[in-house]
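for the record, two folds in this file. i put them one after another cuz i was lazy. first one right below, seq on top, structure tokens after. the second one comes after a little note so u can tell where it starts
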Amino acid sequence: MRKRILALDVGEKRIGVALSDELLITAQGQPTIEVKSPRDTLDQLKLLLGRYHISRIIIGLPKNMDGTLGPKSEEITRFAEMLRGQTDTPVILWDERLTTKMAEQSMLEGDLSRAKRKRRIDMISAQLILQSYLDSVKNKDEDDKAKES
């Protein structure tokens, strides 16, 4: 079985989740994790890691537009460190600037109601984070192949 990549958009109340396909081309949204307690959240993430044979975890890192890190980034970094201490799966922090705005815009264009947007924003943000990562890796691989020729 091929491995997949898991992406998380970590919030205080919910964690958006996305999974890559087995070919590492596309990102698919998954049900959002409701944050009840650190232990419950970790248990739910461990279930995903085992069920989908995850090779790495991508966590959206919120940066300011000038690239600096703010208080929310520090929380996400602590979450990533906790996760690294609880699993052998590599954890990668990935710049998520504008993903929430892009997700909101795409839902507005899709004419989703406010209630539906609220339920889906975290999942779509996680999809955008993962797709950005997958595209970056693909582009790097293509650049490396071009250099070899």
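(here's the note) second protein begins now
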Amino acid sequence: MVYDSERNSKPIINGIRVDLAVLQAISHDCRPEICKNRTTCCIRYVPHVRPAKMEKIVGCFPVVANYTDNILEDDGFKNVFEEWEDGSYRIDADADEACIFTYTLSSGEKLCSLHSAALDLQLSPVAIKPSACSLWPLILLDGAYPELSVDKNWKTFPCNQESDDPNHLDASVVGIINDYFGSSFVEQLLRHAE
């Protein structure tokens, strides 16, 4: 395993610096019912996507439309993306400042229509959802080595708690990392976390 001597010996796995201490400090439990009537990650953040991911999202619009009409116009689908200076595309928000792909169940839970559409299409949600959404509450910071860390506002959301055992990675955090980076990445990470 490679370490970055300039950044407190954080391991570098597959070119990504990992802030293991911060990852071990969080316990995550994504249950939409605990976010009812609260600000959720789908309301607080506006994700950006690269062109390739935008094309995948647009390709799923017919299934996404089964969950939300926010993407519909009289003659088809809306353009819900705004081009950004860095070549990415910002996803629009609705009048309540929620991501345009958010929908609400009759019981009040807020869900992601991209996630639901991916499951309907028998795809991994990571294949369709923006990276920021797939990684939440983890983040990938830009730099010479991208750094896997935790969003600075993680404590303000009810799905996140301080870990009871900060010497081990929470199973949900491991699951997020596995879904996004794969099992080889997780195996390397867990070897270092021992």
